[in-house]
C-alpha cells in the first residue's frame, strides 16, 4: 500500500544523524554535537535557524542517540499548567528531552517554568527558534543552554536532497522522474528542505505513473505559481508586506499601515516581529521630531510580548497609527550613518588630551583632562570648546530636519558654529 498520503518531508525524515544534510558544522566528524553524542552527553540546547533546516529532526535524533524519552511541544499551544504537568510526570524516569518549537513565543512565566526544571536537571531542554534568542529568550534560561545556529541549505544541499528523494521514495520512483533543471526548485526552496520536498511532491502528484516524467524550470514555475501560499512568513511576500507597512508609516498613511499590518497578522506573522519593526521606524523615520514615538514603540514591544495574540493586535494598531500620524525626521538616522562611515576611516585618531579621563595623578601630570572647560560653570551652561580630534575640526554630521522640535534644540549648536567661524 502506497504511503503517498503522508507528506514527502515526513516520508523522508532522517532516521540517523548521519543523514542530516547541510549542517556539517554541527554534525560532522569532529563537530560539537557529534562529539557530545559520542560521549553520551546531551546538555540543554537552543537551535536558532530559518525554517526547514532540520531543527525538530535533529532534536529527536539527539534524544534517540542518548536513549532518552522525547517530548515534543509547540509554544503556540502549551501553557504553564501543561508544562508543569509534563515536568512532574517525569518522576524517577530517565531525564526526558523536552523539545519546544518556536520557543521565542513563550512569555516570561512560561520560560520561568522551564528555567526551574532545567536548573534542577528535571528535563533537558531543546528549544527551536527562527528569531535571535538573545532578544527572545529569557537571559537566565539562555545562560543555561548552549546556542547553536543552523544554516539555510545551500543550492548544492538542496540538489543533493532532491536527488536522494528520487532514489529513496517509492512514490517518486513509480513516476520515473528525471530532474533536468534544478534552478527553479532551488529558488523556490530558498534554503528550506521542507519547502523543497513539498514542491517536489506536489509536482510528482501531477505526473502519470509508469511514464518518463521530466522536471524543468518551466514545469516548476507553473506548478508553484498555481499553488503559491497566500502569505509565506519566510518568503518574498513576507519582505514585500513588511516593506509596504514601513513605507506607509514613513509616508504618514495610517490606513495603509493598518491594512498591511492586518495582512501580516492574518497570515500568521509573529506580532513581536511587527513590534520590533515599529521600534526601528520610530527612531529611523521619526527620531527627534517626536521622541515620544520611540517611548511608545518600546512600550508596544514589551506589551506585545506580555499579552500575545489576539489582544495584542489592539496595541499594535495603536502604535502604528501613532507612528504614521507623527511628524517625521530622519536627521539622526543620517547622522549616525555618517558618523559610522567617518569612524571607519579615522579609527586611529587619538582622543584629545583635554577630553581624556584622568583618574590617577600620573595621568593628570601627563596632561589628561587639562584645559577641559566644564559647561555648567558658564552662562546658559555653554562654552565654546572643540570636542572633535584636531584633524576633524569643523566636521558636521548632524543636520536638523528643520521641524519645530529639532529647531528648538538646535540653538546652541548654531551658536557654537557661529563662534567657531569668527
Automatic annotation (TrEMBL):
Source organism per entry reads: Dendroctonus ponderosae (Mountain pine beetle)
Q: Where is the composition biased (Basic and acidic residues)?
A: 403-413
Q: Which GO terms describe its biological process?
A: DNA synthesis involved in DNA repair; DNA-templated DNA replication
Q: What is this protein called?
A: AAA+ ATPase domain-containing protein
SUPFAM superfamilies membership: P-loop containing nucleoside triphosphate hydrolases (SSF52540), post-AAA+ oligomerization domain-like (SSF48019)
Q: Where is this region: Disordered?
A: 403-422
What Gene3D superfamilies would the database entry show? 1.10.8.60, 1.20.272.10, DNA polymerase III clamp loader subunits, C-terminal domain, P-loop containing nucleotide triphosphate hydrolases
Q: Give the source's domain of life in one word.
A: Eukaryota
Q: Which PANTHER family does the protein's record reference? A: ATPASE WRNIP1, WERNER HELICASE-INTERACTING PROTEIN 1 FAMILY MEMBER
Which UniProt keywords are present, listed alphabetically?
A: ATP-binding, DNA replication, Nucleotide-binding
Amino acid at each position: 500500500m502506497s504511503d503517498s498520503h503522508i507528506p514527502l518531508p515526513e516520508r523522508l525524515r532522517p532516521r540517523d544523524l548521519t543523514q542530516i544534510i547541510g549542517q556539517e558544522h554541527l554534525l560532522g566528524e569532529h563537530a560539537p554535537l557529534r562529539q557530545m553524542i559520542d560521549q553520551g552527553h546531551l546538555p540543554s540546547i537552543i537551535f536558532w535557524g530559518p525554517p526547514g533546516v532540520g531543527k525538530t529532526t535533529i532534536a529527536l535524533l539527539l534524544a534517540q542517540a542518548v536513549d532518552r524519552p522525547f517530548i515534543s511541544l509547540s509554544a503556540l499551544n502549551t501553557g504553564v499548567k501543561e508544562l508543569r504537568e509534563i515536568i512532574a510526570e517525569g518522576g524517577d524516569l530517565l531525564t526526558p528531552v523536552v523539545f519546544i518549537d518556536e520557543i521565542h513565543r513563550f512569555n516570561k512565566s512560561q520560560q520561568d517554568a522551564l528555567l526551574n526544571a532545567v536548573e534542577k536537571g528535571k528535563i533537558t531542554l531543546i528549544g527551536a527558534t527562527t528569531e535571535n534568542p538573545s532578544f527572545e529568550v529569557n537571559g537566565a534560561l539562555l545562560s543555561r543552554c548552549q546556542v547553536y545556529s543552523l544554516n539555510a541549505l545551500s543550492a548544492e544541499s538542496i540538489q543533493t536532497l532532491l536527488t536522494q528523494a528520487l532514489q529513496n521514495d517509492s512514490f517518486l520512483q513509480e513516476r520515473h522522474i528525471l530532474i533536468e533543471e534544478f534552478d527553479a526548485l532551488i529558488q523556490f526552496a530558498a534554503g528550506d528542505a521542507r519547502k523543497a520536498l513539498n514542491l517536489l511532491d506536489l509536482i510528482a502528484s501531477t505526473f502519470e505513473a509508469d511514464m518518463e516524467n521530466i522536471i524543468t524550470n518551466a514545469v516548476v514555475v507553473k506548478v508553484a505559481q498555481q499553488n503559491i501560499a497566500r502569505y509565506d512568513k519566510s518568503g518574498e511576500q513576507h519582505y514585500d508586506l513588511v516593506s509596504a507597512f514601513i513605507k506607509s508609516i514613513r509616508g504618514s498613511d495610517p490606513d495603509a499601515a493598518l491594512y498591511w499590518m492586518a495582512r501580516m497578522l492574518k497570515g500568521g506573522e509573529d506580532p513581536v516581529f511587527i513590534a520590533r519593526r515599529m521600534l526601528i521606524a520610530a527612531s529611523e523615520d521619526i527620531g527627534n521630531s517626536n521622541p515620544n514615538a520611540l517611548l511608545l514603540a518600546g512600550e508596544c514591544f514589551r506589551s506585545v510580548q506580555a499579552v500575545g495574540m489576539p489582544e495584542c493586535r489592539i496595541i499594535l494598531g495603536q502604535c502604528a497609527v501613532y507612528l504614521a500620524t507623527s511628524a517625521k525626521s530622519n536627521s539622526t538616522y543620517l547622522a549616525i550613518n555618517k558618523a559610522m562611515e567617518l569612524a571607519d576611516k579615522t579609527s586611529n585618531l587619538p582622543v584629545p588630551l583635554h577630553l581624556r579621563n584622568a583618574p590617577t595623578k600620573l595621568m593628570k601630570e601627563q596632561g589628561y583632562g587639562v584645559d577641559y572647560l566644564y559647561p555648567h560653570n558658564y552662562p546658559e551652561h555653554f562654552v565654546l570648546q572643540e570636542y572633535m580630534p584636531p584633524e576633524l575640526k569643523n566636521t558636521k554630521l548632524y543636520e536638523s530636519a528643520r521641524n519645530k522640535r529639532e529647531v528648538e534644540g538646535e540653538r546652541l549648536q548654531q551658536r557654537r558654529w557661529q563662534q567657531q567661524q569668527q
